[in-house]
Specification:
Blueprint: E1 13-14, E2 17-18, H1 19-24, E3 29-30, E4 34-40, E5 46-48, E6 51-53, H2 59-70, E7 72-73, E8 78-90, E9 93-104, E10 107-122, H3 125-131, E11 137-143, H4 150-167, E12 176-181, E13 186-190, H5 193-207, E14 210-220, E15 227-237, E16 245-248, E17 251-258, E18 262-267, E19 273-277, E20 284-288, E21 294-301, E22 305-309, E23 316-320, E24 333-339, E25 342-345
Parallel strand pairs: 4-10, 11-15
Antiparallel strand pairs: 1-2, 3-7, 4-5, 5-6, 8-9, 9-10, 11-13, 12-13, 14-15, 16-17, 16-20, 17-18, 18-19, 21-22, 21-24, 22-23, 24-25
Length: about 350
């Protein structure tokens, strides 16, 4: 069989012509001379096939990805190597060079192309929402029967900042739109409901408390008829803090730990720990704040008795020695709580 173009008959045939004639007009790379891409001017998200993707990538990377998306390599090529270079930027246009090496039936082929990538700037829907003051959830932070402490406020701010900063990598609505300081507490306006829930869970894990969600209809999408809601979440921190003394059912204890699942306390009389679920929170009664707990001194100690100074009238007060008191020494300052005219030392844990 001979090639109808050159007449040769001892060459490998590709279709009806020899490989040499085939390769004269063959190009294994296809790439447009001009490529246009739309990029968000605020977050660098790229508009691709009807969706905004790849937020927060550098402009140079956007151009390289645009080149990769628009290069077509023939299926017959093996071991291809494609080298992409941005030669220069002219405003929003990147002048680029594409160099390709590939193997076609044992022959090495090389091709070179020049192309332009033009960046058109727009604003993606997420950034448009941010600019308009959009938010989906409001966390209303309150403290039950007391005011929020400065330490709590600082810790809350730290938690919110850390959670939203972490969430922002995958949720561009993870931002704090506004913080409203009110007499009764603080309201936090957060862009994304999903990230707002992450914030809520972190706050409850740190402080515990009772939360309640209240959705409110704000508008309706005219194109889809879908109702749009905004969520108000009330988070009520407990009346007590770590170190406070509380009464729960028949127990009086000092608060040791608070988290989103429960409160852990140490029974002052029995020196055993017990837990309080949030479902039983309303049964808790405050007895003494940590800062108001009385202090006194150990004035005498024997194998059977421990004698302390009565903090109310400075008289001697005798108690039966218990295993929990054995580490007390004469002169030690200790904390005590008075229950039904009886003093009980608090054991450090």
């Amino acid at each position: 069989m001979f090639c109808p173009e050159c007449g040769i008959s001892d060459k490998e045939m590709i279709g009806n012509i020899c490989i040499d004639c085939f390769l004269k007009d063959y190009h294994f790379l296809e790439i447009p001379e001009n490529i246009k891409i739309t990029v968000c001017k605020h977050c660098n998200a790229k508009y691709y096939k009807g969706n905004w993707i790849d937020e927060d990538i550098p402009e140079e990377e956007i151009i390289y990805r645009a080149l990769e998306d628009n290069i077509h390599i023939d299926d017959m090529i093996e071991n291809e190597i494609i080298d992409l270079n941005i030669m220069q930027m002219r405003g929003t246009i990147g002048e680029c060079r594409v160099d390709g090496i590939g193997n076609f039936k044992g022959r090495e082929l090389r091709e070179h192309y020049n192309t332009n990538v033009q960046i058109k700037h727009a604003t993606c829907p997420t950034c448009s929402k941010r600019a308009s003051g959009y938010y989906e959830v409001v966390i209303q932070l309150r403290a039950d029967e007391r005011e929020l402490t400065n330490d709590e406020k600082e810790k809350v701010n730290e938690i919110i900042y850390n959670v939203l900063n972490k969430q922002f990598k995958k949720d561009k609505l993870a931002y704090l739109h506004e913080k409203a300081i009110l007499k009764e507490g603080i309201d936090y306006y957060i862009g994304s409901y999903k990230s707002g829930k992450k914030v809520l869970n972190s706050l409850k894990n740190q402080f515990g408390g009772i939360s309640k969600e209240s959705p409110r209809l704000i508008s309706e999408d005219k194109s889809t008829g879908k109702r749009l809601y905004r969520i108000w979440i009330s988070l009520r921190l407990p009346k007590y803090k770590i170190g406070d003394i509380v009464k729960f059912q028949d127990k009086i204890g000092q608060i040791l730990q608070i988290n989103q699942d429960k409160t852990l306390a140490a029974d002052i009389k029995k020196h055993q720990n017990f837990s309080i679920s949030w479902a039983k929170y309303e049964e808790v009664e405050m007895i003494e704040k940590k800062e108001d707990i009385q202090k006194t001194s150990v004035i005498s100690k024997s194998p059977t008795n421990l004698e302390i100074l009565n903090p109310e009238d400075y008289s001697a007060y005798d108690m039966n020695m218990k295993e929990e008191y054995e580490n007390f020494n004469i002169g030690d300052e200790i904390k005590v709580i008075k229950i039904n005219e009886e003093f009980f030392p608090l054991i450090e844990q």
